[in-house]
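new request in #modeling-help
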Amino acid sequence: MRRLVAVGIGGVLLLASCGGTAAPSANPATATVAAPKPDIKIGLATAKSGAANFYNPQQSNGALLAVEQINAAGGIAGAKLQLIVEDDGSVRDQGITAFKKFIEQDKVAAILGPTLSAVAAGAHPVAQAAGIPVIAISNTGLGIVGKCDYGPCDWIFRASLGEQSAVPETVKAATQKLGLKKVVIIYGDGKFELDDLTIFKDAFKANGVTVTKEIAYTAKDVDFAPFVTQAKGENPDAIVASSLAGPAGKILDEVAKQMPGKRVIGGNGLNSAALLSNANAGLMVVGTAWSKASTDKTNTDFVAAYKTRFGVDPDQFAAQSYTAMTVLADALKRSGSATDHAAVKKALEGVSSLATPLGAFSFTADHDVKQPTFVMTVKDGQFTPFQ
Amino acid sequence: MAEQLYNAVFIGSIYALFALGFALVFSVLDILNLAHPTVFMLGAFIALFVIGTLGLPWFVALPIAVLVTGLFGIALDRVAFAPLRRRGAPALSSMISSLAVTLIVVRLVELRYGGDFITFPAGSVPAFVFRVGDATFEGIRLAIVVLSVVLMLILTYVLRRTQLGRDLRALAENPRAARLLGVDVDRAIAATFFVSSALGGLAGVLLAFAYNTLDSRMGVPLELRAFTVMVVGGMGSLPGAVIGAYVLGLGEVASLVYLPTELRDAFAFGLLFLVLVLRPTGLLGQKSPDRV
């Protein structure tokens, strides 16, 4: 047995030594020409497992498509981009571990991710402390850029339309088109839902609409009939669902049953492909960062390229990670040196009206995204502009 | 008000249907089967597979899902519980091994169907509607309300009046003595797991039909409720679990109607606390190990 183990270890060592020497002597002819520039490594922390795993593979694929297109077009001043994808597990600690690996082991030029705002609250401070630029590709909650709970967050940029931008546009459009006077908000107890509650209340106030009741549910609630029955008692003009897609589907069904003709206004939580198959999805009004139906050429090219490469249509999360990678590549080109993190950060700050699938893309002084909001509803199983 | 009462009865029925199978294994075998929410979820996904992939109607999918989850229950016992039982492992070990089965099955379902919630193909879910005056009742919801009580009565009858029930009660009291008295303990355990899991699967299918939505974690919110109703009703008592379920359902809806929404959970679990203080064995619980 012991001999077997020794032979095994010897074999492994032999293989390792072969692998180690093979690379430098692979092609001596290239020694005479200029050595190829080392790859520029980009880290992507994304939820491949855990509660938010349904954002993948789209989130990874969007970034991958952008990298492939950029490399095919000659890369960044002759250097290829190399995408390193790590699973953040939808949990804070795993997100932190992924960020540490990117920074300490992979020596990346910049990081994209992680998927969830709650994970970002743990992982972003790691990059902030190390001085590595980060682009948040799907964090829509409060405190991601600008004023952050953990202190300065000037190395963090956001390419995902925050609820502070999308919700007021949605409320404005809904108030005008539906003639809203009073609404009831049904909201969940997670960070995202509570942030949305605050933003919705402010937006309705700004539009002169009264919120007559706020009804809380918890993540443990199974049936939403009692909440909608309570809301119905207020006779509101519309229901606001400050929730994620799962509860929103049940709220839509109950509103259709108990309050026929009323609409459900929601935040980014309702912006989910899974809701499209809901028979009552046509009731919802939601502000989104991306519209597949947009006829802008950059968008139609992206949709076609994604479908050719992966065989399915992209969703918003693919569009956002694709955009973030495009924005990063633009900054890397202008920075002059991908290894100079401060130069990359400065170049990111200079991104201005870049053509992306999300529309003309810039960063605000707070590093937040500045892009159009698409107020949508659902028709025939597709997100369509809310008229 | 009548609407909220109906909502409360429906919610109570969901809790009851879920808790019955959970309470059965606990009452007979003293095992907290943490894989029960997974069996519940599996029932719904088997129905989805039969309807969506095999293209069969819902009334074929329902019995298939119940049968397959029942058989899964027996397999679950053989894999996760029986080896530990043979070695006399502590109760904690069985809880951990059932948790491991949960993780594996949930991941396998996610690999096939993804982690997001999904719906049945359009028009494939039963949609009977009854009208009584102005009120509208959905058939599937009424079925859940009726079944939660009927199944509790049938199970109680089986446990009290049949040979299998006598075997199970002997097993619950003392497995070794039951074996010495000629009870086929292995068969009785297999029957317990089959019935418990079939009930869990049935609950999963009915709930998925009622909401036309299913996801890999759909059983998780019900697990804590099932613990609560078992404690309120009396650990190990099946009628107690059903009564506990209705008490919790009514309490939750009443607190939504009469209290600020932030206090809803505090009210429901305050109720639990009160029951435990006034009646530590639960509403129908017994002090001796003479359960079931």
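bot summary: Confidence is low (pLDDT under 50) at residues 1-31 of chain A.
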